[in-house]
What does this fold into?
Amino acid sequence: MHTISDDRFPKIKNYLQRNLGLYYPDDRKQDLERGMISVYIEAGYDDVNDFIDNLKEHEESSDTIMLLAKYLTIGETYFFREPKVFDTLRDTVIPELIAKKKGNRRQIRFWSAGCCTGEEAYSVAILLHESIPDLTSWNVTILGTDINPEFLMKAATATYRAWSFRNEHSEIMKKYFTKNERGEFKLSSSIRSSVQWNTLNLIADKFPSNINNTDRMDIIFCRNVLIYFSDEGRQKIISKFYDSLNDGGYLILSLTEVAHQPDKRFRQIRSEDVIIFKKEKPAENTLPFTIAKESAGTLSISEYIRKEIPEAVNQEEQVSVTLRKRTAKPYIPDSPITTAAKRPRLLDFYLFEQMFLKSDFTGVIKKAEEHQLNDDLLSPYSVEEKEKIYLYYCKSLANTGNTARATGLASKGAEALEDSFRLNYLAGHLLAAAGSPRDAFTYYTKALFLSPGYPAALFGLASIYRQLGEIDEYINQLQKLLKIASNMPSQKIIEEMDGITASGLVGLISSILKSQRFNEYTR
It folds into this structure.
């Protein structure tokens, strides 16, 4: 039986909205019933209501969510959909990005969120190949994510029928596709290899995050996806998109979705039949710290290790890391007498910590600056308290958009507290987000020297290898992390990794490695 009873309809509606963001009002009950037929049959039930009765209200099952996504999400897309959007990208947006970044790190990052079977992400890749003559000298990331793993499998194979080319681009098809004996069109390996694929649930999964590569984006596409979400779900996702974008980055929605002003922090940019949203750079205080710039050169990360970091530190069953010899002068704190003369009253550490734990980041910054903590007036505190003060202050700065100050202070704290692997990790993480991979690498390796096997630093190091194209070493580091996470208690929360548990980390890394192997196989 596939008719959903009146008393069970609210239950399945709430489950879908909570776990997938899909919104089914009362007038779409029949649509849901049609979609649920394949779901409950594949799950082994004879009746849709029995399937609903066995849904776990408070414990999300990834298998159940994936099964629902498989049959309830929409697989409707094609190459160069809404052509004027791509014209605007080619004529205005991409030239602006190129001009802004040409003298800097030459890095551009795109994300197709809800990418379905990949036509949109591949359209971006083709557009870049057509419009940037020196593309090979740029570090380009194109990420495609979807909740439906079957869509991503189709995307990775990059084989399409004629229906995916409704906006005919005959020259593009001849240049980048090969027709096979079944009448299908196979995309060239040069385009296929430029796109990465990951599963992502826009409602339930955390982003922006370095873990799933959804941070520091220049352009985010999310077209014909948000129309299936509730108003609350749309606003939640768009707010996270804002946080995922670099300052000056762009959010591109479909024409059917732009009627909803996505977030007042975005500025609308209009041209003929196109509306896109730009993240304006927030005002930032004068910066007392500077971020070390990456030195020019063409050394690969492996060559950099061999040249700059000669000594290796091996830890059995953990991780092999390398460390630059220490050259910094030892940190000598002010004496209590000198400190007392400089600071009129001692910081209430308990109050300071509680403000941070309650996410009162502005209050933390104000309290820290009242006590001149950025001037190393920390001698009355224990080593553990000093570390926490630096961490709370840096994270509060970062969470309020003052990333440059946060980076400078984290680097300063790592130098002052030489044995703090957490501050070294935080400095590395902030430097990686700022686009300084080699500087980040140094801090990540020092964090691993101080705490071998520290999962967040190991994942960060792996991400640096991925960013710099050292894929074999990227996979090697992930395999080490997989071994470490597998030996942890399954429900242990992994520090500094967005609240993920050890079992969740095992599943994530396994999925990444599987996706990497699949991508390599299909190229």
The chain has a mean pLDDT of 80.
